[in-house]
Amino acid sequence: MSGYVARVASEAKHQHLFDSPDLGEVVVDAASLQARVTELGAEITRDYIDRAPLLIGVLKGAAMFMTDLSRAIALPLEIDYMAVSSYGNATRTSGVVRIVKDLDIDLTGRDVIIVEDIVDSGLTLSYLRKTLAARGANSLEVCALLVREGLQKTDEDLRYVGFRIPPKFVVGYGLDFAEKYRNLPYVCVFEGDG
Ligand code: IMP
Ligand code: MG
Predict the structure, then answer these.
(1) Which residue, of 50, 56, 157, 179, is most buried by count of CB atoms within 10 Å of its CB?
(2) Which atom of ligand 1 is nearest to the CA of 175?
(3) Distances (CA, A) of 150 to 144, 154, 189
């Protein structure tokens, strides 16, 4: 597992996209996100050269990451989305994962890359892997933008990782709290009541 270690900035003051008492320190700023996504795209391009991978985005959190990552991969790839529910509106995992929207594209013989926003306990990913592995793909890898350090309950094999972040709940760049803050172009600490 690779991935840069993101540290919470020490400076207390940050200019946020909009005013909210819930928004804390920036964990990954917009420029760092874009730079890392470009690197991941180049890495995937090299690894999958002469192939046409199928990227599977996990809605809704991975939506922003997917649109940027896919444009950084110079291959004739395809995109599909799945929606699973594991969190409700709380900031802790329930351990229960349910498919809310399944794939449209057949996985048989495909080189599949699951695109995830964040791996916390790893339960969502372990469920997705198990489910998708049974569908006849040629290969199955994971590209996670963020991994929260130290909290994984399952030992997931993560081929591509953007950043490893400290154990704090974060929002922005697709990640939400109660459906809010997905549109922040950076990732920051959520300081509201979880
Ligand atoms: P896991 O099953 O515990 O690994 O949780 C993974 C899912 O929980 C992610 O795909 C997110 O949707 C959500 N999640 C976990 N941590 C955060 C966070 O810090 N902010 C927002 N969503 C999160
Ligand atoms: Mg998610």
Answers:
(1) 56
(2) 21
(3) 15, 11, 17
pTM strictly above 0.85: yes
pLDDT of residue 11 exceeding 70: no
Q: Which helix (H) or strand (E) holds 115?
A: strand 111-119
Q: Give the whole-angstrom CA distance, residue 58 versus residue 64.
A: 11
Q: For residue 154, report the phi and psi dihedrals to the nearest 5 degrees.
A: -120, 150
For a substitution probing ligand 1, which of 65, 81, 87 has the most ligand atoms within 8 Å of its CB? 87
Which atom belonging to ligand 1 lies closest to the Cα atom of 97? 2
**DSSP element (H, E) containing 54:** strand 54-59
Amino acid type, 71: R
- How buried is 16 (Cβ within 10 angstroms: 0-12 exposed, 13-18 middle, 19+ buried)? middle
Token pair 């399944």 is found at 102
pLDDT 10s digits, 157-177: 899 999 999 999 999 999 999
- Residue-wise pLDDT for 40-85, tens only, equals 999 999 999 999 999 999 999 999 999 999 999 999 999 999 998 8
Residue 70 in contact with ligand 1 by CB distance below 6 A: no
Question: Tokens standing for 37?
Answer: 């996504």
Q: How many helices (DSSP H) and strands (DSSP E) are in the chain?
A: 3, 10
